[in-house]
């Protein structure tokens, strides 16, 4: 086994590889761009090397800088992760020239699968089923149009050098073909520097089912069963699961053997994935092979109890595969959800910013429950609270993986796990994932690659907005925060008995009330909390309830009227983020007004507590209406507005701004109208 390896990647996959290597006693070297100096993967590795500025071309795609770092650190091998240089045959070849082991297949195998057209020609020879279409060298538009006509519409145009869903166009009929071809070519040229395309029959309700394969340098090849990755947005996976629901053992064997045949055709070594597109009737066709570890490999690990990264290291070190096909089995069901910093309501637009608050469900890193280890929730994360999601890299925050004895149990665990995720600072797809997991189509395993569009109404419901319970929780959290702040100030001032530092700020302040205005989006909500002898009363509009609550380790237990519920409230500046059962509301505190009890001041207009006069809002002789603000007092570090208890005329004012007043001091005289 290697003594030291370098990980040429970042984020969760770099962390994943580092953890596995450490567990094998292998030292790890991280690489980082200037944007990642303080990233989690850097902190986790035994050592780290800077490779350049933030832009990927100059850092994570910079082969020379990465090889130089490997030389300097004395790394014997490089793990490329996924994305970046993982499917770059020139990089794999450059590693070989330097005498460094590339943890992946040989450059020839990468090249054979890197070109989708050439790969399909190879697969055809190996007897692997293909989607009808054209994958030859001829690229003349008129010729391609004839091929498309023959294949029959709808037709899918794909970039031969494509990946990541780029350069793909669906063509519904012959008239649209030439324009779609031109646009696919333009995108392919700018993304891959290669504008060759292939044509495929566009399947109407397909499923994406892929098979995990593994080969070693001794000629052994096995398949580690399949994953269903049908739930996609923009042709990119969002939810993945293993095994594929409804796949019969016979079909599983067929697909597994077809995948092994595909891998054998290129003498494949290491971890690879053969992607198939499957029709609803079960017929399946080769789509492409990814010659690397896949993002969604954890679901395979959860059902087989194997660690694929450890297998990769073993194979790269020349060891034979630890198991034969007949010894491989799986148990239970696993689901992965990819948590992205993106806004589903805005076309899944990526979102950038600082993760000011990040809470993940308690998971066990890299647990393999089917191997008898504890735990059924796994979180593969590349970030910590305080880290920044930058525009330079993929906006994935973490992967949430759950395992259950069967799919229904796994689904329940996924719902619970998603409800435990809290993200403040960037938009995220957490609520969207929760709705998708709970949707009728997904829960009944009615899967196809258009699930998201098909279930649009269910997945993008009209915004329900906050209810009284959330508003009451936010008001309660705000009062608690104010009280805590007053207590902290009292501690610092060193005079705990000073009336200015009374920590019982609001509670004994019977008869007074707080008026709070919260905004959600462009809707404002004005609510009031009254302090009465029997406790707090909360009102919103016409509705009024008794309010009580307590905080325990960040969780608020709120009792509103007859309802009792748990909610987490996180303050970020003037925003309150409320998380309850997987639903996230943001309420911006627009104003707090504290008013003493009107009963207490009727007729007398006395100061309800000792304080300082901040402002006099009226002139002697002024006519005022009931409720008009007259004087603002500062007391207990809060502003209190004294309002007119009835219509009247201001007869006299006894203080000026800046004056200190005692409790009970008459502030002004208001003659009834
Ligand atoms: P990429 O290299 O971008 O991953 P793929 O060839 O793997 O491209 O296709 C990506 C996705 O596009 C698939 O997972 C599937 O959802 C859809 N797709 C690909 N080929 C077809 C097809 N022939 N018919 C219908 N959908 C397809
Ligand atoms: P898989 O096919 O393994 O499920 P994806 O195709 O979704 O995974 O993602 C694999 C790869 O990693 C890329 O194709 C790419 O989308 C992603 N990736 C990783 N890092 C980056 C990055 N810095 N910029 C863009 N894409 C990245
Ligand atoms: Mg693909």
Kindly describe this structure.
The chain has 673 residues and is of the alpha+beta class. Helices cover 27% and strands 33% of the residues. The protein contains 18 helices and 38 strands. The strands form 9 sheets. The protein has an 8-stranded antiparallel sheet with strand order 14-13-10-11-12-15-22-20, with helices on both faces. It is elongated, with a radius of gyration of 32 Å. The N and C termini lie far apart (94 Å). Bound molecules: adenosine-5'-diphosphate (2 copies) and magnesium ion (MG). One adenosine-5'-diphosphate binds next to strand 7, strand 13 and strand 14. One adenosine-5'-diphosphate (ADP) binds next to strand 12.
Describe the structure concisely for a colleague:
With 673 residues, the protein is α+β, with helices and mostly antiparallel strands.
Average pLDDT works out at 90
| Distance, first to last CA | 94 Å
The tally of strands reads: 38
Helix content: 25-40%
**Structure annotation, total helices:** 18
Strand order in space, largest sheet: 14-13-10-11-12-15-22-20
Provide keyphrases for this structure.
673 residues; alpha+beta; eight-stranded antiparallel sheet; eight-stranded antiparallel barrel; 38 strands; elongated; binds magnesium ion
């Amino acid at each position: 086994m290697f003594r030291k390896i370098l990980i040429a990647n970042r984020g969760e996959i770099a962390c994943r590889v580092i953890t596995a290597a450490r567990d094998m006693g292998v030292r790890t070297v991280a690489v980082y761009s200037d944007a990642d100096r303080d990233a989690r993967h850097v902190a986790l590795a035994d050592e780290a090397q800077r490779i350049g500025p933030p832009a990927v071309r100059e850092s994570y795609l910079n082969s020379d800088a990465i090889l130089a770092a490997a030389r300097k650190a004395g790394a014997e091998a490089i793990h490329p992760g996924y994305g970046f240089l993982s499917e770059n045959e020139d990089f794999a070849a450059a590693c070989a020239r330097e005498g460094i082991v590339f943890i992946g297949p040989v450059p020839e195998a990468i090249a054979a699968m890197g070109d989708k057209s050439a790969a399909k020609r190879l697969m055809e020879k190996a007897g692997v089923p293909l989607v009808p279409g054209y994958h030859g060298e001829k690229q003349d538009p008129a010729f391609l149009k004839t091929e498309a006509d023959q294949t029959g519409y709808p037709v899918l145009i794909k970039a031969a050098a494509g990946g990541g869903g780029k350069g793909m166009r669906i063509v519904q009929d012959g008239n649209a073909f030439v324009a779609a071809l031109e646009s696919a070519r333009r995108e392919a040229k700018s993304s891959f520097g290669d504008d060759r395309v292939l044509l495929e029959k566009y399947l109407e309700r397909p499923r994406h089912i892929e098979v995990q394969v593994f080969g070693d340098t001794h000629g052994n090849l096995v398949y580690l069963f399949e994953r269903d990755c049908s739930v996609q947005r923009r042709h990119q996976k969002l939810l993945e699961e293993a095994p594929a629901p409804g796949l019969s053992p016979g079909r599983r064997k067929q697909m597994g053997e077809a995948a092994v045949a595909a891998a054998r055709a290129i003498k494949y070594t290491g971890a690879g994935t053969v992607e198939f597109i499957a029709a609803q009737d079960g017929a399946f066709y080769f789509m492409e092979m990814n010659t690397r570890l896949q993002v969604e490999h954890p679901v395979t690990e959860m059902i087989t109890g194997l660690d694929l990264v450890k297998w990769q290291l073993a194979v790269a070190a020349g060891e034979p595969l630890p198991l034969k096909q007949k010894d491989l089995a799986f148990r239970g069901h696993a689901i992965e959800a990819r948590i992205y910093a993106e806004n589903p309501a805005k076309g899944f637009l990526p979102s950038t910013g600082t993760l000011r608050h990040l809470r993940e469900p308690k998971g066990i890193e890299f647990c393999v429950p089917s191997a008898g280890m504890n735990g059924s929730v796994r979180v593969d994360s590349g970030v910590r609270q305080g880290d920044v999601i930058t525009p330079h890299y993929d906006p994935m925050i973490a992967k949430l993986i759950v395992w259950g004895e069967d799919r229904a149990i796994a689904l329940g665990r996924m719902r619970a796990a998603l409800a435990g995720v809290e993200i403040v600072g960037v938009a995220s797809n957490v609520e969207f994932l929760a709705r998708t997991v709970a949707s009728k189509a997904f829960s009944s395993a009615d899967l196809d690659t258009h699930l998201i569009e098909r279930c649009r109404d269910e997945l993008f419901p009209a915004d329900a907005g906050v209810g009284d319970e959330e508003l009451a929780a936010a008001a309660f959290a705000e009062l608690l925060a104010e009280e805590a702040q007053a207590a902290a100030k009292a501690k610092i001032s060193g005079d705990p008995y000073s009336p200015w530092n009374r920590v019982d700020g609001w509670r004994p302040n019977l008869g007074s009330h707080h008026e709070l205005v919260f905004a959600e989006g462009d809707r404002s909500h004005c609510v009031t909390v009254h302090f009465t002898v029997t406790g707090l009363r909360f009102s919103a509009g016409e509705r009024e309830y008794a309010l009580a609550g307590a905080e325990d380790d960040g969780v608020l237990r709120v009792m509103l009227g007859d309802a009792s519920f748990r909610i987490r409230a996180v303050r970020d500046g003037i925003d309150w983020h409320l998380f309850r059962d997987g639903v996230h509301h943001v309420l911006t505190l627009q104003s707090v007004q504290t008013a003493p009890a009107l009963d207490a001041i009727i007729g007398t207009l006395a100061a309800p507590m000792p304080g300082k006069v901040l402002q006099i809002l009226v002139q002697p002789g002024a006519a005022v209406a009931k409720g008009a603000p007259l004087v603002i007092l500062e007391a207990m570090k809060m502003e209190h507005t004294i309002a007119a208890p009835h219509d009247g005329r201001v007869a006299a004012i006894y203080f000026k701004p800046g004056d200190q007043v005692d409790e009970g001091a008459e502030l002004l005289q208001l003659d009834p109208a």
